[in-house]
Amino acid sequence: MTRAEDNHSLRIGGTIGAFDMLHVGHVRFLQLARSRCDRLKVGVGADRLLQKSKRLSPVIHEQQRCEMLRALACVDEVVLFDIGLDNTNAAVEFLCAWPIDVFFVSEDWAGSERFKRLEPALLARGIVCEWLPYTEGISSTEIRQRLEQHTP
User: Fold this and answer.
1) Region 133-137: what's the mean pLDDT?
2) Rounded to whole angstroms, how far apart are CA atoms 98 and 142?
3) What DSSP character marks residue 38?
4) Residue 16's closest CA among 116, 125, 118, 136?
5) Phi/psi of residue 104, each to 5°?
6) Is residue 53 pLDDT above 90, yes or no?
7) What domain range includes position 55?
8) What CATH code is carried by the domain that includes residue 93?
9) Residues 6+ apart with CB under 8 A from 86
10) Tens digits of per-residue pLDDT, 75-108?
């Protein structure tokens, strides 16, 4: 019996991201993810994790990012995530304990070394990765670059 069957056929989805400078690409991704499950859980990268993994300080503090995501109708639960997805074993343990049935991933990560390891490890534990479209032309990196160009 799967977790979904245990929960009266509820399909629990999850995703993880920085969600710094929340933008329309994030919202579209989360709305589409929610349309493919009964409950959507969102892990928000902790400030210290983003500083370590992306070598950038977040523009918006982790608690404010969590609060904004909780305000979205498509999001059912928000947790702070402080394990890098590059740490495959720890990430899989976290996602299994969360628990979720499906892990939503932006297609811009397809083929990455991170997901070449993570996807089969999750599948072996009963969690399927579903790849969702990336919104071209908008990203937190692009927003940062535009802001830097406008800073005197």
Assistant:
1) 86
2) 31
3) S
4) 118
5) -90, 130
6) no
7) 3-150
8) 3.40.50.620
9) 53, 114
10) 999 999 999 888 999 999 999 999 999 999 999 9
